[in-house]
Amino acid sequence: MKQSLIATLVLAALPFTASAQDANATKNATSATPVTTATTTTTTTPTTTTTPATTTTTTTTPVVAAAPAPTPAPTPASAPFDANAPAPNAAPNAAQNGGWTGSGEFGFASSRGNSRTENANAKLGLSQENELWKNNLYLNGLRSKGETTVTDADGNTIDKFSTTANRYDTGASVGYKFDPRSYIVTAARYEHDDFGANLWQGIVSVGYGYIALKNERAELSFEVGPGYKRYQPAKSTRPELNADGTPVVDPATGAAVSEPYTPKDEGEVVGRSLINGKYRLTENTALEDTLLIEAGSKNQYYQNDIGLSVSMTKKMALKLGYQIRYNSDIQPGTVSTDKLMTTNLVYNF
Predict the structure, then answer these.
(1) Which domains are assigned to the chain?
(2) What pTM was computed for the model?
(3) 250-260, pLDDT tens digit by residue?
């Protein structure tokens, strides 16, 4: 009887012992896993009075961490001023026009009152530069009128409103590039001046060109080569001679008598060189200078044009120009150096 009672007590304590062991195992598994889990325990007790069985089912659900918020992109800092960047008022890109760009200039001045003068000058220039060609074409004109003192047929001195300057010149050059810097160039130029050292002059030349510097801010190029030039010296006067070669003398005054004459035109082989430089001082201010030399054994001709332009818009600008022209071979009554200062309105296209 005593043994039967002890066996009954042991059998009754077995289910509680198994449940305690299952709870300890679940607690240890939960503390060892860093993620949050949900545990469901189901205990099934058989109806038999023999050995009870316990079944435990554990379901683990991982907790997904929320994605971090995107970091906003930093605001880009404003770019520093680049002196080599194109000017905001620059003319349209030449690449859109096959490499062609152009400009026209015009200036006019007039005065009335104690004096009466009128003068006008105009310039037109076209240029093309691409991978193969470097071409230029220009046409310039100058005309001026003012009051001058002249002597009429009766010997009276009168003031007359007459022309005091009348000059035009045109030229073109065609350059074929061997590479981005070197090219061969043929050039032609013609000039007519009613009041200059030469009535007209023309030259044809061929030579070699080199672009020493070219970027958005500065440009420098050189051309040099031989050419042939013809020119007509200005009209002048000379002493009138008798048949025996003695000068004719005015019986009333005893002074030698002079007569007008036109010298014969002359021609010679010359050396031609051209230096062209441009430099952008600021975003809307540019300085350019062109030096032309045509040197021969009879006459040396030098011309320098310097100009300062200030852009008002992408197409319009104001330009202050100064030109010096020099001829070494001159006739009596003329000077070797001519100077011209202009203030023009420029249109770029």
Answers:
(1) 1-57 (no CATH), 99-348 (2.40.160.40)
(2) 0.68
(3) 777 777 787 78
